[in-house]
Amino acid sequence: MKKYRNIIFVLAFFSALLTGCVDLFEPAIQNNRDLESSYNEPRFAQGLIINGYARIPRNGWSFNDMATDDAVSNNENNAFFNMAGGQWAADNNPLNQWANSKAAIQYLNIMIEIAEQVSFTVDNSLLDRMFADRIKGEAYGLRALFMFHLLQSHGGMSDGELLGVQILNEPQDLTSEFNVPRSTFETSMQQLYADIQRALELLPTDYENIPDESMVPEKYRALGANRNDYNRVFGEDARQLMSGRIAMAIKAQAALMAASPAFSQGNTTTWADAANFAADVLDLNNGVSGLSPTGLTWYSNAGEINNIGGGVNPSEILWRASLGGPTSNLEAAHFPPTQFGNGLLNPTQNLVDAFPDANGFPLTHPSSNYDPNNPYANRDPRLNEFIISNGRTAGPNNQVINTAADGGTNDGINRVEVSTRTGYYMRKLLRQDVNLNPVSVNGQIHIMPRIRYTEIYLIYAEAANEAWGPMGTGPNSYSAYDVIKAIRQRAGVGLGNGDAYLESIKSDQNAMRELIRNERRLELCFEGFRFWDLRRWNEELNETARGMRIQNNSYQVINVQNRVFGSYMKYGPIPLSEILKYSALRQNTGW
């Protein structure tokens, strides 16, 4: 029991460092409760795993796209504005996941260790066993999730060796050895896979009520459990907790990263592995035909969002955070000035140029109908869904937004402090029925996805193309081509010509690679993927962010912000404070 008291002391100590509470130890330390208190107080015990859920990075938007070629910030004090301008450092890292993820893992490790000692019910050992299994399964799945974020943010090359992070599978206490070296990237990935496997052994695929006794898993039926027992623990009331389906999706996300060029030399995960892991999830969603027809506008499907309840997901969402709202914070940050917003994220001309012609051909292709004197005509419909360009509408009254330098409103490029710097505003993620006018302000419910199905479809397409070529299926029933065709059809691209461009490259792996990467760029824009994608692909990090200046009805592409990233910055740093404290830790090369 002394060990558990030490663990609580360590957690309290970490909390003091994070919150700066100078009165933590005297007299507040007297308010700390021994971990043994949790054994008969399930809510106290479950607070440990709640800490894991509360620390999930995708509980909110980071908008690190503003440090890529997709967007810039109009606020020069923004962390990503400064990061992209050369101020990214081991002691100045807006993308640091070290403290958050390691703290989450500490709480999860404690939960795993004590779960079977907690009384979740009153004198019902069978239900206690079932609850313990579920909560341990959740903890293993969450631990894998945080390992993924640690590897994404801090895995990298050090002295010619691809390293992961420290592997911590037991709770740390005052007697623990903290000066522990980083494991290899391969060892870290294998730990992630092992945790996913443990989660799958303990969790149902989904949390749904079962209608009859025959559906109770044999391991519980043999102990006397009935369907009511099962539904109490694993039924629909537990929706949005870590499930088998979610754990499988995390496995696919991590495998895609591991198979990518920046990491592939240091581990055994293959493109085929990543494709098959994604297919395991997609097969549960009816394969390619399961692609949500409303998935393109998942963030603004008002009827779908406003009527959601009971832990149910829209068809596009695999896993989400709790519904937010009614709120208007997102719109206040990003609406154009005439809609009473701060216009924070400004999409770049680089991204706008990535949207093809409506016929599906890239703008530079001879078969494109692109007119530089009328640049927004006959374009991929997603351009108008995701980005506000000059002459498009926004807000609850569908007001025309004029971004021209001589347009006469504060929406014009560089007109006032909160105006766009690129000639564009973000439309995606925002609910246009939010009204920020102080006279009649209103908020709306927002949905925050942790994982969207479209991401998993794109994981499959990328990995399958690399493993088996555009038309190959491996052991699955669909190809990269099949997935991309469905995604582009949903977007309304190439409908008039049978998507002739896609058809022309379906035997060309290199051309298909570029198309898949571009589709990922478009479909997932502003959702925090581009920053990590460029790095795992070993792509150019210093492409200048460009914009469009319109004056006298003339269109001029302008440079907006240079990117200043060293070649070593395809990997993120270990926090400098950790390197200074622990001699066993090796920093990634260049930092």
UniProtKB/TrEMBL annotation:
- One annotated Gene Ontology cellular component of this protein: cell outer membrane
Residue span, RagB/SusD domain: 336-591
InterPro entries per UniProt: SusD-like_N (IPR033985), SusD_RagB_dom (IPR012944), TPR-like_helical_dom_sf (IPR011990)
Residue span(s) of domain SusD-like N-terminal: 62-211
Where's it found, cell-wise?
Cell outer membrane
Does the keyword section mention Signal? yes
Per UniProt, the keywords (alphabetical) are:
Cell outer membrane, Membrane, Signal
Family from the record: Belongs to the SusD family.
What is the protein name given in its UniProt record? RagB/SusD family protein
Q: Which organism does this record belong to?
A: Belliella baltica (strain DSM 15883 / CIP 108006 / LMG 21964 / BA134)
